[in-house]
Design goal:
The chain folds into 2 domains: 172 residues, paralog of FGE (formylglycine-generating enzyme) (Alpha-Beta Complex); 58 residues, no CATH class. It contains 6 helices and 12 strands. A hairpin with a 5-residue loop joins strand 11 and strand 12. The longest helix has 26 residues. It is elongated and about 85 Å long.
């Protein structure tokens, strides 16, 4: 599918079509920004093994001079110009990798310890509306966060340990670099994770679990211990305490939420357990 030619020595790795899960299905509200869990179906694509070096950047951009090391002090605007120049040599899209593309290739990639690399995706509050085909999530945010990008940061002392972070893409920073992907051009409509949660269903579920975990035990405990009168006289305290316990429990545990994927007909649907 892709040409084996690499005139700029980019050390491109070919990644075969695959599927990868992003996000979590954990129900606790501390995990809300990582939901919904979804299965991304990726086509064949190429990705640079290393972040772009200073020499590669200068050569492609027509800048004189050679210097060792990875290219940093970049912005998304600079990267866009770089990709436009490089796209003259490829028939497919040249851009930053999406989060799913990076995750699928992670074991084959190299990032200097202590460095951060910019990805294509804008920073969002959760995975609702995320593409299910690996395309980047861009053009959705307004305001200050519209210039920020999801990024991967390498541990300063442990090789191969990464953390997902947020990085301003409109401000050049030291030790913030980038790599590129060569991805097929696609014109069909993007299939996405549903935008909205079922608020009524979630509210009913939350009331059920608060009652079961917090309120009901709060009244049962004094009755079992022989203080039945307190369950009547102190009902307000017991109710308040039960609501607090039930609510706090929701931070860490609730039943697992739905995982979304594309079925055999290409329709967005919940994945069966």
């Amino acid at each position: 599918m892709f040409s084996s030619q690499d005139p700029h020595g980019l050390n491109l790795i070919e990644i075969e079509s695959c599927e990868i899960f992003l996000g979590t299905d954990k129900g606790g509200w501390v995990h809300a920004n990582e939901r919904p869990r979804h299965l991304v179906s990726l086509p064949n694509y190429q990705i640079t093994k290393d972040v772009i070096s200073i020499n590669q950047f200068n050569k492609i951009m027509g800048i004189d001079g050679k210097s060792e090391g990875s290219k940093d002090m970049v912005t998304t605007e600079i990267i866009d110009d770089f990709c436009k120049k490089l796209s003259e040599h490829f028939e497919h899209n040249v851009r930053l990798p999406s989060q799913s593309e990076w995750e699928a290739a992670k074991e084959k990639l190299s990032l200097p310890m202590g460095w951060t690399e910019l990805l294509a995706d804008e920073v969002t509050g959760n995975h609702r509306g995320a593409p299910l085909d690996g395309r980047p999530r861009i053009g959705e945010m307004i305001g200050p966060l519209s210039g920020h990008r999801t990024s991967q940061s390498a541990h300063p002392t442990k090789q191969g340990v990464y953390a997902r972070v947020t990085t301003p893409g409109d401000r050049p920073l030291p030790k913030v670099g980038f790599r590129i992907v060569i991805s097929p051009k696609r014109t069909e409509e993007v299939k996405r994770v549903p935008d909205n949660a079922n608020l009524i269903s979630n509210l009913k579920s939350e009331l059920f679990w608060i009652s079961l975990i917090g309120v009901i035990p709060s009244f049962c405990i004094p009755i079992i211990r022989g203080f039945s009168s307190y369950a009547i006289d102190g009902w307000a305290n017991l109710l308040f305490g039960g609501l607090c316990v039930g609510f706090v429990s929701g931070a860490f545990w609730r039943p697992r939420r739905a995982t979304w994927h594309l079925d055999e007909n290409g329709d967005v649907t919940r994945m069966k357990d």
